[in-house]
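Exam revision sheet. Question 4 asks you to relate a sequence to its structure. Input first:
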Amino acid sequence: MSSTERTPGGADAASAHLRGTGSAQTVSDIDSLAINTIRTLAMDAVQQANSGHPGTPMAMAPVAYTLWQQFLRFDPADPIWPNRDRFVLSAGHASTLLYALLHLAGVKSVNSQYERLGEPSVTLDDLKHFRQLGSKCPGHPEYHLTSGVETTTGPLGQGVATSVGMAIAERWLAERYNKPDFKLFDYRVYALGGDGCMMEGISSEAASLAGHLKLSNLVWIYDSNRITIEGHTSLAFSEDVAARFLAYGWNVLRVGDANDCERLAAAFDSAQHVDDRPTMIIVESHIGYGAPNKQDTSAAHGEPLGEEEIRLAKKSYGWPEDAKFLVPDGVYQRFAEKMGKRGHDQRAAWEELFARYKAAHPELAAEIEAMQARKLPAGWDSAIPTFPADEKGMAGRDASAKVQNAIAPHLPWLVGGAADLAPSTKTRFTFDGAGDFEAGSYGGRNFHFGIREHAMGAICNGMSLSKLRSFGSGFLIFSDYMKPAIRLSALMELPVIYVFTHDSIGVGEDGPTHQPVEQLIGLRSIPGLLVFRPADANEVAETWRTMLSLRHEPACIVLSRQALPTVDRTKYASATGVARGAYILADSEGGEPEVILMATGSEVQLCVGAHEALKAEGIRSRVVSMPSWELFEKQDEAYRHEVLPPHITARVSVEQASTLGWDRYVGLSGAKIGMHTFGASAPLKALLTEFGFTPERVLAAARAQAGR
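Answer key, structure tokens:
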């Protein structure tokens, strides 16, 4: 027995009395004991924290146990084995369910360099410190914190949507790398969600696409307990979920009792034999099962049960009522002999297969190894173009298209697409053999997400979690529709790339609904996200070089629809300065600058023009291109002070967006030329004049700052 306090006869008492489990008829005594161990660990962890959600872990324990012990292809000793099945707890508030499973299964830790440490991912002490500072058992599962957690969940619907990206990745990997006699990739993805996940719009978007793509390797488990925070789901939710998923093109199964392990096993087995559509298993449950006075109440969902209620629940399980964090004899062993042995054997067989694959297909094997370590192949950036000086120039989105298509043939796992906007965002791969990712034809590099921005973000996260270099694209204004998924990219430290075009009021006649004003500062406010707004084609090229070199940070590249002059780099500084976030593009002659002009994107050219005009007037100025604030802030103080000397306080910022945030660079006395409204519908030139993005306005501000 493993316990914080050894209760005399505790293991025997727990083993002898299995009443109240509802599953004693269909599973062995030791399996019932293990299921109740999951339940009691969840109850005890939540009670000790005095915070959390015990109901769903108690109700879903038999479901998760049946899946993990009988079906999930997962080796606890190596939780990042590439062909493992994925288990996503989309109902992230039920985190103690997952933590109990990780602990009992003996899952080992892996660090950020993908090194296996051999230490437990979740110890009993971690469970005792659930929701406490420093514990590997935070309130909701965190991918970067706890090995065995496949994705961060908490915001409802994100987990199930992310699972679609994982399933897509498996199909792509299988299509590219599987060869006759070498089935390297054939894993399945299981996601457990509840009524809240089914209500959130992102799950509908993702389910619709999964059905369209016929992702038969995907299984969603719907815990239909009819309870949310406010009470019974009848308050706001009465649709026929089964009918909805049938309409999406899913296979739908139903298990009438979450404690019926035999029926659950039959459902999981049935799902494995469906080869033309994803599967939804609807499981009917009573939240807080085994808590006699808490069934079908929101309290069991969102509050600790209380000591007395826990005693009653444990009594109903035949459990020692005063034991806390009790793991009876035989439970660890049961996990080891079932899931542990199966997973070990499956991983060992896969590794032997991969060794033979490596001998037969060394180049493809090298790709897989590089991908799994988030490394880039040699020469991946060898074809990135350099653009000659050109006053007419090209749109940022057009330059990006050229760069992407130069890189992609040398980086085979760079994949992605748009939310129905590829002709506008110019993100389609056009090189020979690029192809489209479609149902039954899963090897294409071009993805069609449909008008589903929110799901696109989550799916890109799922693809990145599977080690593909994924990108999604759309108009900058619609980044609002996918902000929660972008936030999770940053939280999970995933190198997802977001390509946003139509970056400013430069969209002209489309008007305020399409003119992004507050989106740049909104994205910049996300910790860990790098935002780039390049000023010309060469800055675009360097932005791609920088973004793809990232291993643990997501990035947004924000591009213009209108043409941008290509800066003459023989006259002005090299665009390689992009790698430092901001750099001196043009500097004063004959002394230090009297005024610093700074901008991003198309507005940099306004500053260059003003710089030349000021030079003719005898006013010394410096132009600083600032494509990425976040990257600039990562530089050492010496470099930052070199670019923006603190003693030079005469400064002007220019950006066709909200001025919020520019104070940190221009100071309290600097001038900020930006947007203070939502824009207007008019031709571009009229808008630039109306809102002050003109050479005259910049010149006037610069003169005033320089005291001239």
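Marking note for examiners. Residues 390-565 form a domain with the Rossmann fold fold (CATH 3.40.50.970).
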